What does this fold into?
Amino acid sequence: MPLETPDAPLQVRTAFMVVQHANGEWEALTDITKPVEAEHAPSVIEMKFGASEVVSDIEASKQSAITAHQLMAMTTQMQQSAAHQALAGQLKL
It folds into this structure.
């Protein structure tokens, strides 16, 4: 890593903040310019737990999206099957 002066902005590829709200909920924020007033500096345990909570939330959201997609596909398949059965029933008349 190149040496940087203390007042110069840190040059990084991307950045986000993980915060714990007063109600205990953890959140990843992509707007790192938003002012934050923390009650205290984080401990290593808080950093580890907060990061873990954010990862869990991301994985749960991903799994929910996959499940919703599968349900939509199954619904479409069932609708097509019902339409085919209706058409077959009409053709038998």
The beta strands are 17-20, 26-29. The longest helix spans residues 44-92.
